């Protein structure tokens, strides 16, 4: 009986840590983008809200904020799915989307500090992991 050749994946030149980090980055970007979509939909459903903190009184137009998050979330889902199937364009798009998500999270740092810091940390990791993979 002839022995079947074993499957050996083709070498990609990427380190295992970079490849694993990119997969985790794709998953984290997908989760963060889905949350952006949900936040966007819920914000579009309302008109205006006044959020107060100890030093701030900020009027936030939830409809505009919702559309920004909805579009950013949809772009993030497309980029995350592209990252998970190893599309080269998706890495750059993922870095851009994660960077924009950091900026939008900074805007709400005074109002929702724990959530904003968590989303910022996710997106910093996504940018780092995708940058390492691009370098390799």
UniProtKB/TrEMBL annotation:
UniProt keyword annotations, A-Z: Membrane, Transmembrane, Transmembrane helix
Domain of life: Bacteria
TM segment ranges: 21-45, 65-85, 92-109, 115-134
InterPro entries: DUF7144
Limits of the DUF7144 domain: 22-133
Protein's name according to its UniProt entry: DUF7144 domain-containing protein
